[in-house]
Amino acid sequence: MSLPTHIPVLLKETVGALSIQPGGRYIDCTVGGGGHAAAIMERSSPGGQLLGIDADPEAVKAARDGLAAYGSSVLIVNDNFANLEAICMKHDFLPVNGILFDLGLSSLQLASSGRGFSFQQDAPLDMRFDPGQKLTAADIVNDYSESELARIIREYGEESYSHRIARRIIAGRPIKTTLGLARVVEGAIGPRKGRIHPATRTFQALRIAVNNELGNLETAIKQAVNLLGYDGRLVVVSYHSLEDRIVKRLWQRESKDCICPLDVPVCRCQHTARLRIINRKVITPSVAEVEANPRARSARLRAAERIITEDEWRESTERLSFLGDINPGGWRKPIILREVLGVSSAPFQ
Ligand SMILES: C[S@@+](CC[C@H](N)C(=O)[O-])C[C@H]1O[C@@H](n2cnc3c(N)ncnc32)[C@H](O)[C@@H]1O
Q: Which atom of ligand 1 sits closest to the CA of residue 80?
């Protein structure tokens, strides 16, 4: 089997947090070079199955090649994880024992010439994970208003010089390449002082905006909770505080029995917890891992477990009377989804 050149981050911790069982079904929503996916397949053997998703067709090809040895136990789909529920229903891949998101971009994408993710090499300002998508970084840089550019750079790059950079970008248009943009940013806020290049935050901001990374993450995480069987694990490895905040906020809400505002004396929301948070404190890589793989530097891992609510339990036992082949332990929610949306079962191959 050919080994992926991307070194998977927090591999041991991810596999541990997913609590992988032989014969289990897992989804890798960001399959990339297939590093985490291969480890999941090793641990879930015999009988494990994996659905891998990636928006980038080059990553899909790399994952298909790297995971070819697992044959029809692995299905790799070229799609956006924001369509997670629809993908799972199309392939009848639910409920699942574990779902992984290893966010951001891979070393393969960063190193790939012509994708425009990095200012280490000159390339057109592209930054799309999915080359079929219309919006590119060049569109944002050359067409957006100064205030909109400043907002993107401030919000998604957490850059305090966002207005100064936006003004320089407007003055420097048209800006067609990564090095051209890096020079404009450097001209706006001065040369590198420490380890971090001055254009790092602006590049992060543009990549997040081009790929709607935060919006897609929020959509997908909500869907992932629905797809997990009881005791199923949800694991997210994020690389900056914006992603981590989204995960933390959604999980805090999903792990509470009441989400009424604090000034409401008696609960009116009827909300019941569907997740149990496994680690309150994020798991970060060891010094040795960061030394071996600097890309791991900012990684933070969060894990949660699907729990059954009282209503779900009641409904699942009612349904057991006519759904004879259902595991008495659960799996109600996905069946409901399938019924509601009228999606037919397709063989998993
Ligand atoms: C950090 S890499 C994953 C690496 C992988 N875990 C491995 O071990 O090789 C992140 C991957 O997620 C993909 N990705 C990012 N956002 C996505 C989205 N919304 N939908 C599908 N794939 C996405 C990227 O194309 C990239 O290949």
A: 20
